[in-house]
Every structure is written in structure tokens, then in C-alpha cells.
Design brief:
This protein has about 650 residues and is an alpha+beta fold. The strands form 8 sheets. Strands 26-23-22-28-35-34-31-32 form an 8-stranded mixed sheet, with no helix packed on it. A 7-stranded mixed sheet has the order 4-7-2-1-10-13-12, with no helix packed on it. A hairpin with a 3-residue loop joins strand 12 (about 210-215) and strand 13. The protein has 12 helices and 35 strands.
């Protein structure tokens, strides 16, 4: 979040940009920077003439190969006035053996690069059903052609040594391993997935495992069935030598099944069990605030695969990194991304921004006291660059769609800002539940989200979206304060990091420490330079801007005895700086103008940790965390800034 809640002068951050693990997974190993949908415009128009209602995948897959074979049955409803050609996307590297209609007839198969189609014996009209089974085979290892890596991969875990084969289809890579229609707005009503493999393997997929059928030649067939609507890119398979770990979440009188497929290495489950056991608590908390888990009659779970991060496959996340944050993120996707899916990739923040924010919420609800650092880190990622919008204008760029700084970090921070603007948690979470209900098992875009938010709150969010969502950058506040009798004077000067957004009209909170107890004051900054006069009882000793990290910002807060309502301009700013920040061994304090008399470091509760009269302070003995550095000048002025200590 902000690199400084309070800082004495502007200084340069030296924080290495961190990529979100989910973003890493989705940008994958692709060597291409541009998103290329397999189907041409004409082919997309052809597929828009039918709506898919059912898929049945019957596949042969092993844990150490990308060779795939089998069939996919598709049942669809005609939406056009006449349909005489049926086609699907399938990578040219995969061979179609036949396309069979429901009546058993086999029209001629035609291929046009990554499109397989057939001319129907009779034209179908609106509302009629079409039933087609496509038999195919080939090697699904499509090197460097998937938008976010390979749609179908095999690999070996570097840590555990386990082999696995898995799918990862977002955004347009499903066609690399099965024949499909890749349209976000055409959710499939139900899907069955049968996978035949060697009997030492297990197969994870969406829905419920209805049968495990023993077959000749040491083979076994896993039969998964799901009856919830699902988007094409959320259909998945994961094959490896797994052990099954079962737990349950309890919501009211209901139990929700949690089914994890973990590598059969003896130490793997032991290592990750403490984190996996948090899943039930997260699921219960998310259900309370977002509405009941949307796939409650089936399951939730994880299937391990050797890649960085996770992928929110519906009801069973594929996961390569197991920690508290990524488990929360992918579970959050079951509501924001799977249950309600972004209508276009321009609206990806409705998936990734919200899933990122569920990491913060999980910390707030289950790991009390850690959410502050979560948002601090998030804001720090955002401020690695001065510009950038949450809104995705260019959906041909994979790196932009899944940009860790913008779609994930800033998207999540924007949700936090919306919560701050609503300023009523009961109403905010009621809105999220209504959003889930109104767009259940369907898709939504940003305009629809904003419209519902305004209806639920009675507030116009146009300016908020124009600044924080469509706009760029973040504000920097230079605040001077002084107390005269029972009045607190605040002079706030706002500058911004990007000329694209010259002013952020926003509420701002200030923590005021005073003799009769601390208080939070909320003001609305509506101009770049603004003076606030606030009635205040008790003697103020310290002021901190945005103590709860609601908005992305940097801030300088100084006491200035010349701010008194009569001289609103006050004195020229007194410039200090301290570095490095974050620090691990020593910090150096420098004064540009007024000599420093002393420096004091306190923890965030105000407890004094150490004092010094030196310009270089040894902080090696301090534990990792957030501290406040307060500096006193020879003329009696004090100012303070946030200090991050990392061991």
C-alpha cells in the first residue's frame, strides 16, 4: 500500500516489484506477448449461432505425457434462425478422427487451421438441439502458442519429484487440448469428465467423483460429473500419483465437502496440512459475507501440479504453491470468477481484483492483525510505477490482462477503496451478496457492477471510478497541522503521480493521538490545496494520515505552529529524509534545513522502542514489522514517518 503513512519528505522507494503467484501462473511460460484467439471473426460468428448446454469429455491421459485421445460430446441449442454448419475450435496439431451426430451419421470433417467443422445434413432452426461427438487424438504440447503458457502440460515437481499432467486454459487455451467453443458468455449448463489412466494415478476435475472404474491392462477410469454452469476455461483435468485428503466446512446445518489431491510423497501432506486445514474456515467466512458457497452440493478442493501459483478451476483449484494467501485467492475466485465471471477480458478485475482482495479479507477475519501488512505490500506493488489503470483497454496483450500490479494489486486496492467509500460494512457486504445473486452462474461487466452498486448504496460512484479505476496513478499528501485551543487546523496539499489524474477527490482518515485518547477524523479532500478546521478536545500530540490504509497514497504529515487559521499558507516545508526504508540494520536521518535534536522509534501502538541523538541509528535488534519514526528538531518541531523493518 502506501510506502509511507507519514513521511518527512519524499524519498525514492527501493522495493523490488513482486508478481502475484496467480498472475505468474496465467502469464506462464508463453513467449508471445499478444493474445491470439484461435477462431477467426467469421468462425466466432458461426459458433455464436448455438449455445452449449452440455459437454462430456472422455479422455485418455497419463501423468507424464501430453499425448491425449478420446472424444468430446457437445449438446447445444440453436440460437440463430438457421444453422447449417457446426464448428468448434481445436488446435491444428490435434487430429480429428470423426464427428458423429446424435443419430449416428458421420458428415465429412473439414479443417481450417484451428477450426474443425462439418456441413449438417439438414439446416436447424432456433431452439432445436444439436448433438455432436468429436473423436480426436494427438500431442497437446503446443509449444509457445498458448496465451498463458501451454493449455496442456506435463512436468515434474522440483521440490517433491512427482510427475503430473494438468490443464490451464485461461484465457483462450482450452482448444489446445479439447474441441470447444471459447466464449465467456456461453456458460455450459453441465459437464462430465471421464479420464482413463494408469491405475497408480488419480484424476482431479470439477464436480463430484461419481465412479472409479477398474479396467483391463492396469487402467482405471475416473468419472467426474458437475451440474453447475461453467465457463469453458474452468473445465480441467489434473493427473498424478496423489493421496486424497478430505475435510469439511460447516455452514449452519450443512456440510461442504473439501477434497484435496496432494502428491503421494510422504512429506507433502504433512507439510501443507496446516494451510489446507484453513480452507474450511475461509469457506465458512466467505459464505457468511458473499453468500453460500455457490457449488455447495458438489465440493471444493485442490489438485497439485508443478507450476507457480494457482488456477481457479471450478470446484477444484489446480495449485502449485500452497500458502495462506494463494489458498484464499483461489477460493475467492469460486465466487468472483467462477460463479460470476467477467463478461469480457476488459473486466478481468471483477475476477482478479476481487480474488486479490479476498486475501486481505481472509487475513482480516482469520489472521487478525496481519491484514495491515497485506495491504501495505499491495500498495507498494502498485506504486512501483507512477501510472496505470485498472481498466484493460488492450485485450490483445496477455501481460496487460494478467498484469500483477494493475489487474491484481490495484484491482484489489480499488475494492478496498469502494468499501471505504461506502463507509458501511453491513451495506458493502450486502451489496456483494446481491451482486452474487443477481449475476449467479452468469457473467457481469464493470458497468453492470457499478450500476448495482449505485442502486444498493444510493450514491453516484462515477467520480470514484473515473479516478481510481479508469484514471491512473495515486495521490501524495503534504499535510501540516496545528492545534489552537479546541480547534485542529489541517492544511493538505495533494499532488498526483500521473498527469492523467490531476486530482483525487476522496475522503481521507486521520488518526489523532491526544491526551484524552486517540480518535479518527474523516475529511473530504475536494481540492489540491485545502484547509480543514476541526473541533477537537484534548491536546493533540501526533497525526497520521490514512492509518487503516484505505487509499493508495504517499503522505508527509508535519506539525507546523504557523498553521492557525490566520496564516493558511504556513511556513515553507521543512525537509527531512531517512533511508533505507525498508531497513534491516541501520537507518540514516538527514535534515535539509532544521538541525535534528533527537529521534524516537515506537511501535504502531505508540510504545517507545528506542531513542537516539545520532543521525545513524542501529535497528538490527528490532524485530520485523511496522514502526513509527518521530524526529524532533532543535526548534521544538516534531514530525513522523512509517519505518518498515525487514530482517
Amino acid at each position: 500500500m502506501k510506502c509511507l503513512m507519514l513521511m518527512l519528505s519524499v524519498f525514492t522507494l527501493h522495493v523490488k516489484a513482486q508478481q502475484h503467484q496467480c498472475a505468474i501462473a496465467k502469464q506462464g511460460s508463453s513467449k508471445r506477448s499478444l493474445l491470439a484467439k484461435a477462431a477467426t471473426i467469421g468462425q466466432q460468428q458461426l459458433m455464436s449461432q448455438y449455445d452449449v448446454t452440455f459437454h462430456h469429455l472422455k479422455l485418455n491421459v497419463e501423468r507424464n505425457s501430453t499425448i491425449i485421445s478420446g472424444s468430446v460430446r457437445t449438446i447445444a441449442k440453436v440460437t440463430a434462425s438457421g444453422l447449417d454448419t457446426f464448428g468448434v475450435e481445436l488446435h491444428r496439431q490435434l487430429i480429428v478422427d470423426s464427428m458423429v451426430l446424435g443419430n449416428g451419421s458421420k458428415p465429412t470433417v473439414n479443417r481450417d487451421n484451428d477450426f474443425a467443422f462439418m456441413i449438417l445434413p439438414n439446416s436447424l432452426t432456433t431452439g432445436q438441439a444439436i448433438d455432436v461427438t468429436i473423436y480426436y487424438h494427438g500431442d497437446a504440447a503446443v509449444k509457445a502458442s498458448a496465451a498463458i503458457g501451454q493449455g496442456f502440460s506435463t512436468g515434474v515437481s522440483g521440490r517433491w519429484g512427482n510427475e503430473a499432467t494438468w490443464s490451464l486454459s485461461q484465457p483462450y487455451s482450452a482448444y489446445e487440448w479439447w474441441p470447444c467453443k471459447q466464449s465467456l458468455q456461453d456458460k455450459i449448463d453441465s459437464v462430465f469428465v471421464d479420464v482413463t489412466t494408469s491405475n497408480e494415478n488419480k484424476v482431479g476435475s470439477q464436480g463430484l467423483l461419481k465412479a472409479v472404474v477398474s479396467l483391463p491392462n492396469n487402467k482405471v477410469r475416473y468419472e467426474w460429473k458437475s451440474f453447475y454452469p461453467i465457463d469453458y476455461y474452468l473445465i480441467s483435468v489434473a493427473v498424478a500419483k496423489y493421496v486424497e485428503y478430505k475435510t469439511y466446512a460447516r455452514i449452519g446445518g450443512d456440510s461442504i465437502f473439501i477434497q484435496d489431491y496432494i502428491y503421494d510423497n510422504p512429506q507433502t501432506l504433512i507439510t501443507f496440512k496446516p494451510v489446507l486445514d484453513q480452507t474450511a474456515k475461509m469457506l465458512e467466512a466467505f459464505s457468511e459475507h458473499f453468500g453460500m458457497y455457490p457449488f455447495a452440493t458438489e465440493k471444493y478442493g485442490h489438485a497439485m501440479a508443478p507450476f507457480s501459483g494457482g488456477m481457479e478451476h471450478q470446484t477444484m483449484t489446480s495449485i502449485g504453491v500452497i500458502d495462506f494467501g494463494i489458498v484464499a485467492h483461489e477460493l475467492g475466485h469460486q465466487w468472483f470468477g467462477d460463479h460470476v465471471t467477467c463478461k469480457t477480458w476488459k473486466d478481468i478485475w471483477l475476477n482478479e481484483g476481487f480474488a486479490t482482495y479476498t486475501e486481505y479479507l481472509a487475513a482480516e477475519w482469520l489472521k487478525l492483525g496481519t491484514q495491515a501488512q497485506e495491504m501495505t505490500d499491495n500498495h507498494s506493488r502498485i506504486m512501483q510505477a507512477p501510472g496505470g489503470s485498472v481498466w484493460v483497454a488492450d485485450t490483445t496483450s496477455v501481460s496487460r490482462i494478467f498484469d500483477s500490479r494493475l489487474s491484481y494489486a490495484k484491482g484489489g486496492a480499488f475494492v478496498h477503496i469502494l468499501r471505504f467509500e461506502v463507509n458501511n460494512d453491513s451495506l458493502f457486504f450486502a451489496f456483494l451478496r446481491q451482486y452474487q445473486q443477481q449475476f449467479a452462474y452468469a457473467t457481469a461487466n464493470t458497468v453492470e457492477f457499478k450500476t448495482l452498486l449505485e442502486q444498493m448504496t444510493g450514491k453516484d460512484f462515477t467520480q470514484v471510478f473515473n479516478q481510481w479505476f479508469y484514471g491512473e496513478g495515486y495521490p501524495t499528501f503534504d499535510v501540516k497541522w496545528n492545534q489552537v485551543n479546541d480547534t485542529l487546523y489541517l492544511k493538505s496539499k495533494q499532488t498526483t503521480s500521473s498527469v492523467a489524474t490531476p486530482l483525487f477527490v476522496t475522503p481521507v482518515e486521520l488518526l489523532v493521538k491526544r491526551s484524552i485518547g486517540d480518535t479518527i477524523i474523516r475529511v473530504n479532500q475536494q481540492q489540491n490545496d485545502q484547509l480543514f478546521k476541526i473541533p477537537l478536545k484534548g491536546a493533540a500530540t501526533f497525526v497520521q494520515l490514512d492509518p487503516n490504509n484505505w487509499i493508495i497514497n504517499q503522505a508527509t504529515v508535519l506539525k507546523d505552529i504557523n498553521i492557525n487559521g490566520t496564516n493558511e499558507l504556513g511556513l515553507a516545508q521543512i525537509n527531512f529524509r531517512y533511508y533505507p526504508n525498508p531497513a534491516s540494520s541501520t537507518i540514516t536521518i538527514e535534515s535539509v534545513s532544521q538541525p535534528i535534536q533527537s529521534a524516537q522509534i515506537t511501535d504502531i501502538t505508540g510504545k517507545q522502542i528506542l531513542t537516539s541523538i545520532n543521525s545513524v541509528i542501529d535497528i538490527a535488534s528490532l524485530q520485523q514489522g511496522i514502526y513509527i519514526l518521530t524526529i524532533k528538531t532543535v526548534d521544538g518541531r516534531t514530525s513522523a514517518g512509517k519505518l518498515l523493518i525487514k530482517n
